[in-house]
């Protein structure tokens, strides 16, 4: 039975419908348009292309980040709304895990570089062993320089993916052990979220539709600025 996958963690807006043995449809767009304007249309179109009624869906898979704070909230809100309304399971997939599905082969590392602002990246590394995805380095915030240094010293070739790789591919070209993924594999897509979600569901892993949240790793710049201003106001009051 089909599941719907939603990916809005970056500037890519993507929706897909899949079963265990095939991708029925996928609608993916990478343009500078707000997720709030395009995502629901992509979901509707993906279902239409797959000739699947929403009531036939058996689960919802959604990319939970880290990534764009606004995009993550919009995608997760849509996923939770549909899962709750249809009374079907929901499963959250990290952006690193989803991207690692681009290269499900042994003897390489899949490295994920997602923009964390201020010359920092959300960085994680994965590898496949006989069809099983394993986490080599869990998602954390690194400077881009430190993340590249880690990749350069790995014992196997590293395939780099994520929005930072897309925007700064020339930096990755200078590395001897790191290879930037091509344009059609560098960014997240809902098809990967779908098959990662199907694997989780097969293992009996689901999330609570009421409590599932985005994986932010760190607070947004707006939240940090708000806290800074609150501290400044308190200091002013003491004067």
Helix and strand arrangement:
Layout: E1 3-7, E2 12-19, E3 22-30, H1 35-49, E4 60-65, H2 69-86, E5 90-94, H3 95-100, E6 109-115, E7 120-129, E8 132-143, H4 144-152, E9 158-161, H5 163-167, H6 169-173, E10 178-180, H7 190-202, H8 221-238
Parallel strand pairs: 1-4, 4-5, 6-9, 9-10
Antiparallel strand pairs: 1-2, 2-3, 6-7, 7-8
Helix pairs in contact: 1-2
Notes on the protein architecture:
- By secondary structure, this protein is an alpha/beta fold.
- Helices cover 37% and strands 29% of the residues.
- The protein contains 8 helices and 10 strands.
- The strands form 2 sheets. Strands 3-2-1-4-5 form a 5-stranded mixed beta sheet, sandwiched between helices. It has a 5-stranded mixed beta sheet with strand order 8-7-6-9-10.
- Helix 1 packs across helix 2.
- The termini are far apart.
- Please tell me what the overall shape is: globular
The class by helix and strand makeup works out as alpha/beta
Q: Low-confidence segments, ≥5 residues, pLDDT <50?
A: none
**Going across the major beta sheet, what is the strand order?**
3-2-1-4-5
The span between the termini is 65 Å
Q: How many strands, which pairing sense, and closed or not: the largest β-sheet?
A: 5 strands, mixed
């Amino acid at each position: 039975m089909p599941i719907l996958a939603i990916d809005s963690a970056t500037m890519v807006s993507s929706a897909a419908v899949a079963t265990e043995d095939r991708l029925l449809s996928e609608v993916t767009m990478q343009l500078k348009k707000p997720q709030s304007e395009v995502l629901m249309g992509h979901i509707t179109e993906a279902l239409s292309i797959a000739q699947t009624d929403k009531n036939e869906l058996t689960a919802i898979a959604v990319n939970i980040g880290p990534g764009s704070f606004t995009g993550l909230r919009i995608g997760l809100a849509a996923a939770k709304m549909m899962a709750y309304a249809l009374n079907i399971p929901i499963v959250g997939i990290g952006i690193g895990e989803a991207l690692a599905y681009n290269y499900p082969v042994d003897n390489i590392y899949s490295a994920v570089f997602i923009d964390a602002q201020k010359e920092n990246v959300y960085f994680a590394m994965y590898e496949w062993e006989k069809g099983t995805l394993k986490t080599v380095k869990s998602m954390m915030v690194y400077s881009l320089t430190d993340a590249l240094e880690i990749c350069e010293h790995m014992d196997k070739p590293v395939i780099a993916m994520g929005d930072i790789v897309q925007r700064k591919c020339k930096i990755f070209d200078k590395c001897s052990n790191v290879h930037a993924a091509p344009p059609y594999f560098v960014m997240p897509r809902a098809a990967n979220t779908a098959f990662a979600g199907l694997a989780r569901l097969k293992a009996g892993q689901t999330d609570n539709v009421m409590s599932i949240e985005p994986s932010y790793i760190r607070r947004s710049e707006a939240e940090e600025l708000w806290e800074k201003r609150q501290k400044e106001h308190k200091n002013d009051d003491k004067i």
